[in-house]
Amino acid sequence: MSEHILSKDLQPKTNRWKFLLGELKPKGKLLTPFNIISVPVILLGLVLIIIRFWKGLSSITNLSQEVPWGLWIGFDVVTGVAFAGGAYVLTFMVYILRMEKYHSIVRVTVLNGFLAYLFYAGALLLDLGRPWNVINPIIGNSFGTSSVLFLVAWHFMLYMLAELIEFSPAIAEWLGAERARRILKSLTIGAVIFGITLSTLHQSGLGALFLMAKGKIHPLWYSEFIPILFFVSSIFAGLSMVIFEGSITHRVFSHQLAKGNHKSHDQILRGLAKICSVAMFAYLFLKILDLVHGHHLSHLFTSWGAWYLVEIIGFVMIPMFLFIRGVKTGEPLIIKIASLMTLIGIILNRLNISVIGFNWMTVDRYIPTWMEFEVTFAVLFLEIWIFRWVLHRLPVLRPIEEVVKSQNIERS
Amino acid sequence: MSIDRREFLKTLGVAGASLSGVSALGQSKPESHSEEFYAILHDITLCEGCQECEFACAVANSLPEPSDYPDSEVKRKLKPDQYSVINAVETSIGEVYTKQQCMHCAQPACASACLTKAMEKHEEGPITWDGDKCMGCRFCMLSCPFNMPKFEYDSNNPKIGKCQMCFSRLTEGEIPACVENCPAEALIFGKRSEILREAHRRILDDPSNYVDHVYGEFEAGGTSWLNISPVPFEELGFNTSMDHKPYPELTKGFLYSVPSVFVLWPALLLGLREATKREPENNELEVEE
Ligand code: SF4
Ligand code: SF4
Questions:
Q1: Does ligand 1 come within 6 angstroms of the Cβ of B216?
Q2: Does A133 contact B138 at a Cβ distance shorter than 8 Å?
Q3: From ligand 1's centre to the CA of B128, what distance in Å?
Q4: Are B242 and B145 in contact (CB under 8 A)?
Q5: Is B89 inside a domain boundary?
Q6: What is the pLDDT of residues A35-62, one digit of tens each?
Q7: Lower Cβ count inside 10 Å, N or C end of chain A?
Q8: What is the mean pLDDT of residues B13-29?
Q9: Is position B76 within any domain?
């Protein structure tokens, strides 16, 4: 391992530039179904974004005086960040509890988390009416410290830094900078501890954003415990994303994986499923407690109540049982289905709070425009592009020697 | 400090300059201080729906003049460029007129939500918006229990529009434009405790003409705009199911827990990491990789 790195390290600087330029070139086939769909979507999204900044938010969104936050916040930011929760849970398991079994998937999860934050924070910028002032709460000429959003915004930024540090050894390996790698590696534990603390606070903080919207959110979803519910659900949301995303990358990048890896992956799945089911059980317990405590039982017999039960039974309870079954039988398919259902449940929950159940008493409901969906997909696809670009080049799924080897083969 | 303020009240016309340096009031000031704020009372029994206040508001804030009239068939709404609306409401005693604008809460949700301090509560009572600070996140709109801040969705340089209680006029020793121009004297302005007393006096003196409810006395923890009405406020479409606690209090528990998590978590995590150490030395992850 060190041989490769050392010899690369000794190469003159100009070569490194050439290397970087070379890495910019696309790898793999260009005309895949994903590319054919995603490229037009991304391009159209860019056009829409230009229109949005030129003509104002109403040009492409259905936001209104009654509905200040729509799909972009409700899905991109609030849901997306819950999905990105896998990184803090996994780093907790691997670096704090030293569960070595999961070490092999830490890098890819942290990368995924980092990119998710990057793009979802980006989506937040799209939603800001006066984005040029976004600098105000950062440089400190105007600290609104009593604001939950202030806290969340700062934690986003700091957490992105922490994740970057956690991931940085992979970048150093890729560039063949061994000394930098060692220094960066030594920062990992600090970043992990900092990152977990920040995650606890901003995952729950995202829920706390809605605390003052009391009376606007349907009582079945409004709760003084939203912060805790958001935190607990981010555990299984994040891990379900790890399972789901892992099952895709493992298919697409299966050539990158050593043989033994597939088997250990099933082991990993089982472990993650177990944790998910426990977290979901705790979550359900809290939900029921909240329901009874808040005296909202009567709402259950309305159509909102039915919708609530769809979310809780259909997309929390059932996937929880599927996870438990998956743990018992070790059947990866059941676990994957459970993770997908869990993800849908999280989308439902976050949207029920931020969009669907918001202003539930008003007659004219907010329905996002197709353009809001379009831009959401554009952001998502762009993220996947970057993710794929990195997976092709950096030692994320496999050790650096193999990356170098495969690159040499490709070059020759 | 309260003496200063009382002085100021008496010399309302002169004190302008000394006030410009007054700093903003924190969110956590005890509620009793809200008594010291200025307040405006809208006496719905006196309001004639003439819209003079709307026009005065438009002039004072350089906004377009309103082009429609109160009509019980349509509900007129606040807009980013209309800070005050009069609505005609058909009630059990016939048509009455309501006035709607930012309530200027004693402990405003909007200001505690704002991460740039663009929404700011001033010692005199008004909550103002500052375009140089605002980043347009609309968290204030999400948080305001009365849905008062309005946003220019159709602009690439959007502003948040809402009543500022004529803050700049106040600092020059003048009273809000709407109050000054109300021909029916349905609006009165003064220190909150005095205005509140006057509101209760009117109700007590003429209980057959008023319902015993000063809207804004307790709603959302108390506001600077107060209303008294001949019919129950539900009939007028006012939100009466609102909390009587200040809304910022809803997030207080969460915000207070942040520092302790910041101290406890890292210690806990480090401890856990130590506890799970099996063979010191060779089980270090760094070495292993
Ligand atoms: S009514 Fe709304 S906008 Fe006005 S001060 Fe209260 S919270 Fe702020
Ligand atoms: S929109 Fe502006 S005034 Fe309102 S909370 Fe955001 S930064 Fe503050």
A1: no
A2: no
A3: 10
A4: yes
A5: no
A6: 888 899 999 999 999 999 999 999 999 9
A7: C
A8: 33
A9: no
Q: Could B136 and A68 be called an inter-chain contact, meaning their C-beta atoms sit closer than 8 Å?
A: no
Question: Do B70 and B88 contact (CB within 8 A), yes or no?
Answer: yes
- C-alpha closest to that of B179 among B79, B35, B69, B43: B43
**What are the chain A neighbours of B151 within 8 Å (beta carbons)?**
65, 68, 129
Calculate the alpha carbon distances from A125 to A46, A63, A66, A264 in Å.
14, 15, 21, 40
CA distances from B274 to A138, A242, B270 (A): 35, 27, 6
**CATH number among 1.20.1630.10, 3.40.50.300, 3.50.50.60, 1.10.10.60, domain A34-403:** 1.20.1630.10
CA nearest neighbour of A85 among A303, A332, A331, A342 = A342
User: What are the chain A neighbours of B251 within 8 Å (beta carbons)?
Assistant: 148, 208, 211-212
Best residue for ligand 1 mutational test, from B83, B127, B142, B160 (most atoms within 8 Å of Cβ): B127
**Is A95 an 8 Å CB contact of chain B?**
yes
pLDDT tens figures, A230-269: 999 999 999 999 999 888 887 777 777 665 566 677 888 9
A309-341 residue pLDDT tens: 999 999 999 999 999 999 999 888 999 999 999
Cα–Cα dist B128/A339, whole Å: 47
Ligand 2 site, residue B119, Cβ cutoff 6 A? yes
Pocket test for ligand 1, best of B105, B138, B159, B164 (most atoms within 8 A of CB): B105
Does any domain span residue B62? no
Helix (H) or strand (E) holding A330: none
- The reported pLDDT for the residue numbered B286 is 44
The single residue listed with the structure tokens 């909550």 is B127
Cβ(B135) – ligand 2 distance below 6 Å: yes
Backbone angles phi, psi at B205, to 5 degrees: -70, -30
**Among B100, B128, B162, residue to substitute to test ligand 1 (most atoms within 8 Å of Cβ):** B162
pLDDT single digits (tens) B179-188 = 999 999 999 9
Residue extents of the structural domains in chain A = 34-403
Residue B216 sits in which domain range? Answer: 33-48+104-272
**Residue B160 near residue B143, CB atoms below 8 Å:** no
- Cα(A323) to ligand 2 centroid in Å equals 42
Distances (CA, A) of A305 to A230, A294, A301, A349, B74: 20, 14, 5, 13, 32
Q: Whose CA is nearest to atom 4 of ligand 1?
A: B102
Closest protein CA for atom 6 of ligand 1: B105
Bridge pairing between strands B127-129 and B119-121 = antiparallel
Q: What is the CATH number of the domain that holds B177?
A: 3.30.70.20
DSSP letter at B86 equals E
Q: Which residues of A touch B111 (CB under 8 A)?
A: 146
- Provide φ and ψ at B5, rounded to 5°: -65, -40
For the question of an ipTM over 0.95, the answer is no
Among A93, A135, A138, A84, smallest CA distance to A112 is for A84
**Are the beta carbons of A342 and A240 closer than 8 angstroms?**
yes
On whether residue B232 sits in a domain, the answer given is yes
